[in-house]
Amino acid sequence: MVIEEIYLSEQSILSVKNQLLQTLPKEDLLRLSVHLEPVELPSGKYLYRPLEPISHVYFPNDAVASIVANTSAGRSTEVGIIGREGAVGLDVLMSVDSSPNECMIQIPGDGWRLPTSVIRDEFKLCGTVHFRLLRFIHKLMIQISQTTLCNRLHSIEERLSRWLLMCHDRVDGDEIKLTQEFLATMLGVNRPSVSISAVSLQNRGFIKYSRGHITVINRPGLEELTCECFQIVKNEYNRV
Amino acid sequence: MVIEEIYLSEQSILSVKNQLLQTLPKEDLLRLSVHLEPVELPSGKYLYRPLEPISHVYFPNDAVASIVANTSAGRSTEVGIIGREGAVGLDVLMSVDSSPNECMIQIPGDGWRLPTSVIRDEFKLCGTVHFRLLRFIHKLMIQISQTTLCNRLHSIEERLSRWLLMCHDRVDGDEIKLTQEFLATMLGVNRPSVSISAVSLQNRGFIKYSRGHITVINRPGLEELTCECFQIVKNEYNRV
DNA sequence: GTCAATATGTTCGCTACCCGACAGATTAAT
DNA sequence: ATTAATCTGTCGGGTAGCGAACATATTGAC
C-alpha cells in the first residue's frame, strides 16, 4: 500500500496496523488519512467517560481498549474489548453523543484517531467505510452478547482464559502487561479468585507471570481450557 | 386488522402500536407501509435461529421478543429484550445475514414485518429511517451491555424484578404470561431459584401469580427492589 | 541499603446459588 | 370424575465465589 500524498507519510502508512483501516479501499483510506492523527495510548487512559461527549473515534494499532460498565457502588465489569480489529467510540455514528459506559486502555500501545465530526461526515457518505464500520459494530454486539452469557454460566478459570486469549489475539508477542487486581476488575470478580485461577494456569504451564505482566506460553492449552465463548466470538470476527 | 388497500388502511395505521414505526415521519411510514405485513406472534415462535438467514425484520406491537444465547451444553441466557419500542433482526442491516444468537417470542401478541430485502433497500437510502434504526440498535447495545454487568454482579431477586419491569413496560396491562421454568431459562438460573424469588416478591405484595402468568400489582415496589440496571437502560431508551 | 509501596499467595468463614429429588397444586383431556 | 400433564414449593447436600484479613515477595525511591 503506497500513498505518495503529503498526508500520511510512507512510513506512517506502514504503521497502520489497525486492520479496520488497513483493509479499507485505498481511496477511502486516502480520504480519511487527511484527518488521521497518530496517538499514544498509555495504560489507563480513558477514551471516553460515562455520559460525557465522545470527542474522537480511536483505531488501536497494538493497544487494547476495554468497554467497562460501572455500578454506582463502585463495582465494574468489562463488557467488551477492542483492539486492532476495530474502532472505539462508534456510538457517535448511532445518533448519540455519549454512552453510559466508559472506555479505557488496558494494554498500552499506539493508534490513530479521528474527530467525531470527521467520522460522522464520512459515515454519511454511505459508502464502503459506512458498511465496514457497521459490520464491526455488529461483531462487537455479538462479543458483548456472548459475554453476557459467559458471565452468567461459566467459571472464573474459563473466563480468565478467554480474556487472556482475546488479548493475546490483539497484541504483538506473548506478553500482556497488567496486574491481577486489574484483571479482577475486568472480570468483575474479587482479586483472590483471580490469584487462585492464575496459579492454576501457571501450574499447568499455560502462562507465566510476575508483578504486572503475564506471558502466554501454551496457547493451545488455554484454548482447550476456556469455554466455547472464545471460539464463537472469534468465528464471528472471521466471518466475512 | 383488515387491509383494504395494498397500503395500510386508516384503521391499520391506528393499530401500529410499534413505536419505532409510529414515530417515523409520515412519508417514510407510507413508503414502508406498502411492504408491511401484519403478523401474529405466538409465544415460543422463533423469529430467527442461530446462524440461519434472517428473512424478516419484525416490529412488535404488544408482543415481546427475547434475544437468547445458547451453549452447546444446552443452557441458555437472554441477552436482550425487544418490544414495541424497537425491531427484531436488525443484524441484517450490518452486513451480515444471521446471528449466532436466536430470537423468540416471550410474550405473545402481534406485530408487523418487512422482508430483509425491503428493510435493506430502505436503509440504503440513508434517510430518517436509517438513523432511527441505528439509534435503536445503539439502545439495544446498551441494554445488552448492562445485562452483562447485571448477570455478573446482581442477585437473582434483583434480576427477576428487572426482567418483570422491562416486560411490564412493553405490554398492555399488568399481566405477563409465562412460567417460572421459562423465566429460569431467560435469567440463566435454575428453576427452584426463580420459585424462591417469586415467592418472596409475592409475599411482599409486589406481584401475584399462578400457573403460567404473573401480575404486577405494585410496580413502585419492584422498582425499589431491583438494581439500578433497570433505570440506566430506561434512561438510555428515553434519551432523544 | 533501607524503606515504602505495590503485587501476589493463602486462609477462613459465609452466602448465594446449583442440582436433584419429590410432593402438592392446578389445569386440561377423556 | 378420573387421569395425566404441567406448574409450583420446598428440602438438603454440595460448591463456587465473596470478603476480609494477613503474610510474603518484588520493585522503586531515597
Topology:
The structure is a homodimer of 240-residue chains.
Chain A lengths: L9 H5 L4 H4 L3 H8 L3 E5 L4 E3 L7 E5 L3 E7 L5 E7 L19 E6 L1 E7 H9 L3 H26 L2 H13 L6 E2 L3 H8 L3 H13 L3 E4 L2 E4 L2 H7 L3 H10 L2
Antiparallel strand pairs in A: 1-7, 2-6, 3-7, 4-5, 4-6, 8-10, 9-10
The structure holds a DNA duplex (30 and 30 nucleotides).
What does this structure look like?
2 copies of one chain form a homodimer. Chain A has helices spanning 10-14, 19-22, 26-33, 116-124, 128-153, 156-168, 180-187, 191-203, 219-225, 229-238; strands spanning 37-41, 46-48, 56-60, 64-70, 76-82, 102-107, 109-115, 175-176, 207-210, 213-216. With 240 residues, chain A is of the alpha+beta class. Chain A has 2 domains: 10-149, Jelly Rolls (Sandwich), CATH 2.60.120.10; 154-238, Winged helix-like DNA-binding domain superfamily/Winged helix DNA-binding domain (Arc Repressor Mutant, subunit A). Chain A has a 4-stranded antiparallel sheet with strand order 2-6-4-5. A 3-stranded antiparallel sheet of chain A has the order 1-7-3. A 3-stranded antiparallel sheet of chain A has the order 8-10-9. In chain A, helix 6 packs across helix 8, helix 6 packs across helix 9 (219-225) and helix 7 crosses helix 8. The A-B interface holds A 67, 69-72, 75-77, 79-80, 91, 93-96, 99-101, 124, 126, 131-132, 134-135, 137-138, 140-142, 144-149, 151-153, 188, 227-228, 232, 235-236, 239 and B 67, 69-72, 75-77, 79-80, 91, 93-96, 99-101, 124, 126, 131-132, 134-135, 137-138, 140-142, 144-149, 151-153, 188, 227-228, 232, 235-236, 239. Chain A binds a DNA duplex (30 and 30 nucleotides) through residues 155-156, 179-181, 189-193, 195-196, 198-199, 209-212.
